[in-house]
Amino acid sequence: MRNISSNRFDDGRDGTVRISDVARHAGVSPSTVSYVLSGKRSISETTRRRVLDSIDALGYRPHAGARSLASRRSNVLALVVPLREDVHVPVAMRFAVSVVTAARDHDHDVLLLTQGEGPAGLRRVAGSALVDGVVVMDVETDDARVPVLRSLGLPSVLIGVPADTGGLTCVDLDFAAAGSACVDHLADLGHRDIAFVGQPASVYGRRTGFAERTLAGFESAARRRGLRATFHPCDPAGAGGLASALVRDRPGLTGLIVHNEASLAPLLDAFAGHGRVPPEISVVALGPPPPGVPELTRVELPAEELGARAVSLLMDRIEGPERPGVTLLEPRIVPGGSTAPPAG
Amino acid sequence: MRNISSNRFDDGRDGTVRISDVARHAGVSPSTVSYVLSGKRSISETTRRRVLDSIDALGYRPHAGARSLASRRSNVLALVVPLREDVHVPVAMRFAVSVVTAARDHDHDVLLLTQGEGPAGLRRVAGSALVDGVVVMDVETDDARVPVLRSLGLPSVLIGVPADTGGLTCVDLDFAAAGSACVDHLADLGHRDIAFVGQPASVYGRRTGFAERTLAGFESAARRRGLRATFHPCDPAGAGGLASALVRDRPGLTGLIVHNEASLAPLLDAFAGHGRVPPEISVVALGPPPPGVPELTRVELPAEELGARAVSLLMDRIEGPERPGVTLLEPRIVPGGSTAPPAG
DNA sequence: CCCGGTCGTCGAAGCGCTTCGACGACCGCT
DNA sequence: AGCGGTCGTCGAAGCGCTTCGACGACCGGG
Prior knowledge:
homodimer; alpha/beta; 434 Repressor (Amino-terminal Domain); Rossmann fold; six-stranded parallel sheet; six-stranded mixed sheet; 13 helices; 16% strand; elongated; DNA-binding; transcription (chains A, B); DNA-binding transcriptional regulator, LacI/PurR family (chains A, B)
């Protein structure tokens, strides 16, 4: 064990340990310590060990600012979270947490930006080299941030798919496939007459795209399978009325696909009021498990996987050359107790 | 307008503008630009203007790493968000957003840390000088992070109050006062016989402290006002039974204080089943407005105010000498339609 | 009119790290 | 034995900013 320098000198006067302290303690030069840490040049195993031992003997942590100045890498990612009321907050949180976790796996930290700052926030963190890249959640079809991102030259990954994806890297759930999967699930069980209860009417054609894509998936699959299939926009207040109308007008209806988190509970209550409860009428939910409603068959939104994927794509963009493209995650049907073959 | 240097030189080859570019463009030295930006020395109004004009003519943004290296300030705050399932996610999100907003008002950005990393995360960001201070949300009575914070010498503010607050800066809602305020509200309306429906029994005495503090406030106020008052822990599954029992055993009961977000809806449903709906029986809720339940009289959790306060206290700690202490925010009763003088 | 003080500005010295080029030492060839 | 080629290490030169001390210029008071 070589321990050249005396302890008196090892701790700098204000308590922080610098790379030169480690170097002295290990009997090497600062650059060697740096190379041990970065692995950018080969270092003999003996030296490596000695340096690493010194590092944790002294409790050394590289100064983030100095590192980012010298290496032109901050090892920080920005995450833009949505503020809008209509995003499901717990899901957004799951995203955020998974992004942080994934970022840590790649030795990065995460800076939180809110929608509130908009493009200005992106410009700021990009311009000041505060972050190496950015993950933008909840991207709309015509998102004001998209042109900014394109112009900024900051590596970025979008969660969600805007209208023009040229030059962009995007990740999202394959909502069209999700819509189809629900239809196929019901058709496979033998259902011939189903209804799709969607978002409030105003949502379609407006912004997010995911609603239309789901609906399109539903419609094409229903056509393919030759089902009687109808579409009904819905809001929580109208759920009761819709249920009554369906019960009255569609006696042959045996399957329901519900893509509307907020209306799910009132809708089920209303159907129950008409004596129709799952699985006597089959119900497939699209979205997060609503609180209080038990074990529905549903398509999960794989927030954790999306977050991790977004980060991993972002890291690729940061390291390597840009290779844009849209990644759509395969939806998975989670069986619950709410679907069964139709009666009779 | 003096524009000494030619544009060819103003834009560095990789597109980033440095302080020296601004200086040249404005015909001053880099240090002068720095002083204009920091305000740490007086600068003549003419020079100031000229520098500021150059800054936005060139689109200059100081390099965050360089700045933090030289000034020993990163202008970044860490925010530790809870992961536990039992915190109300939308409320946590409101906190987080308000912290970010407040931080931006103080020219700081926010780094997101998750509970998952625990003390190690705090050590990391502190040791590497990544952040100037940290806001810790959802602090428990015996929180493992508290000793770490104390030892780290990193300025910090806790949202929540641990058992030992020595040397710490904490902010929280005054839950005892909230409990009292509910009692006073009902007593002022003329109620003489009330019940407090609390968290599941296991919560009391365990970790968060806020439950006990609320209960203590309830009890002391009830005693002070001379009310008949009882306490009932409750979980969602037991809400129906509790309602029946109360209706049966407490015919004189006219007021309910509910400190249990999850049980609120089933409890109200159960009371409604016995023909007792607000405001015929008065109900005060403690906590965030539950979805679907309309306009209850309640005590709000002032997340925005707490977040802003936490940041402002943290900034004080970062700038000035440490001045620890516990700040409790006054609760506010938000009138809804669910309380009225007792019948008869 | 001279002198001490303030004001506004500048130059230079770091902050702590990474990275480039250089350079011995040692290897296996001819 | 001599030679090119790795391999492992070092020294020095920045990265872009802040900040300290210095220093003219200008002010008002004796």
